[in-house]
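FYI - complex with zinc ion, inputs then prediction.
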Amino acid sequence: MPVLLYHKVQDVPGEIAPAAFREQIAALHAEGWRTITMTALLEAFARGDVPEHTVAINVDDGLRDVVRTIVPALQAVGYAATVYAVPGRVGNGLHMTWQELAEVQAAGMEVGNHTMDHLDLVTLPTDQVGWQIREADRLLRSELPVPPATIAFPFGSSDERALRVVRELGYRLARVTKLGCAAPRDDPLRVPIVMSVKDGDSTAAVLRAVRRCER
Ligand SMILES: [Zn+2]
């Protein structure tokens, strides 16, 4: 199954323009692709099920474009996504507020853990690795109606220390940024992406990427 990754969708040079994002979503929809959240993907895989013609859309970092542009574009075609939020940056002007993250959940999106400060975990002392994951988990639980159930590591970077904390907290899915197709037989704590979509990537390239992971 394909996991598509997005970050920013903004009308500024170097970022994916809202019109380009809407075109990509419309093209997926026109090809009959359905979407699935990462928690639903995990549940499907646990049953040994690979939903057909289905893509998981992930949006990392929880920037304000999510609530302004991305969620409305997805909702227009009945799509869901998983948004990985960085609690240490919530409400700082660039990133969504807790209220906006709650609205994103109410719109049918999943909100997951992207750690407290978006640091590269493998470079940190062990107590910091634990704190970055646990503190983000604690805040997401206390500030949002729906608790987080999945995590994405900043820079896709994790090690055994991080994975131990993730397991202790009860997360059963972690997404990285290695390229590949998600499959039930693979380690759910190392779920790959098929493409990190950037400015300049064509709609055709996005469609080709997701088709590569069709079974
Ligand atoms: Zn990130």
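The two ends are 8 Å apart (CA to CA). The mean pLDDT is 97.
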